[in-house]
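Pipeline run #58 for the internal structure catalog. This entry was flagged by the ingest filter as a single-chain record with no existing model, so it goes straight to prediction. Upstream metadata was stripped on purpose; only the residue string is passed forward. Reviewer on rotation: M.T. Logging verbosity set to normal.
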Amino acid sequence: MIPIDGLPVLTAAEMRAAERAAMVGDVTEATLTDRAGEAIAQAVARLAAGREILVLCGPGNNGGDGYITATLLLRQGLSVRVAASEPPRSDGARRAAALWEGPVEALDRVDPAPVVVDAIFGTGLSRPPATMVQDALSRLGSAAWLRIAVDFPTGVATDTGQALGEVPRFDVTLALGAVKPSHLLQPAASLMGQVRLLDIGVAVGSQVRVLQRPSLPEPDATSHKYSRGMVAVVAGSMSGASELAALAALRAGAGYVLHLASGGANGPAAPHAIVRRDYTAEALAEDRIGAVVIGPGLGRDDDALARLEAALGSGRPLVIDGDALRLVKVEALAAHDGPKILTPHGGEFTHLFGEVTDDKLTATRRAADRSGAIVVHKGADTVIAAPDGRAILCPEASPWLSTAGTGDVLAGAIGAMLAAGLEPLAAAEAGVWLHAQAARACGKAFIADDLADALSAVRG
């Protein structure tokens, strides 16, 4: 079982193509089924720890994987039963079912077991399973000590993150051959439990991958405050939000943070390491500024619009968040030549790019292409996309991030990474990773100030 950090993400169609490409010489579909069954059996045997196992098989290839798994577990001397939703229909499933030497029980009447392995439907499901299947999964899952899904829990669409019908929560999902979008997209991702990859000997590659621990910029003996990165945060009518972004930029590792607000900063404030000056458009012309963060607490009046236009005209690398996402036009973004990163939550994304009518990954990649910007589409299933088609899917974030100001902290952290010289997609990934790690370090019921402070500790 392989952790999925940094691994390629394939759609159902891409996975089918990869499997076809792998079937050369003496490698057949049966070979891949046998490899999958062997890998699943090894994982299940380890996880079950000697408890009785009930393998639930469907009529297709996912069911075939289940029959092979059950056969191999039985040969190891483990207590295994098999139940089927219906007889096997594909050639592969029939071949696999013929290897099972025990009885096959009816799914709707089978008794529960401590360990349930769901191999009913996997990749490629496009409609809700029959009510009998949903009811049986709910009954058997609720009685089990451990619930394991093969490739996907039955009832999950492969590419969109949709749950088709009622899908119980699983403890472990064993992805076969490659990670797929719904392993990370909500609401499906919340039903997966821990997702682990099983290698079945299929070569895979993709422009989309899972978030991984980044290589963070580190100072050395020659470093100084400007080489570590200078971030300018443009304030507006709600300076608390921009102060949070400025604090986060410092805590994430920036060497110099300039907070530009009307009236300076309304007097001295902590931390005193933030440099506070009156806002002027000319202040953005400072050559040493490596990133401008604009949007947190900016407001939406004429003065806010003028500040946004000045930032767009400065040529500096930009992180655009919050109110600025309500003011900016996509055409203006595309016309800006410098690096730019947008950090919309769902409502801001819809305002700027329209309703998501397909899935979050596709919509975010389309938005990045249209705007010429890196788009960090925030949420429990944050998606990061670049104009060239590259994209990063992020594991489920802490639900305690649902508090005011945490988005401002993210903008500041990304600004620090951008100012430090990371290319825009890498800067966005590093900021999102730091943000998620800081949330974990904070635990429960934290506030945005705590989150910003925690960024320093998770740099280690």
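catalog note: The chain has 14 helices and 17 strands.
catalog note: The first strand starts at residue 53 and ends at 57.
status: ready for reviewer M.T.
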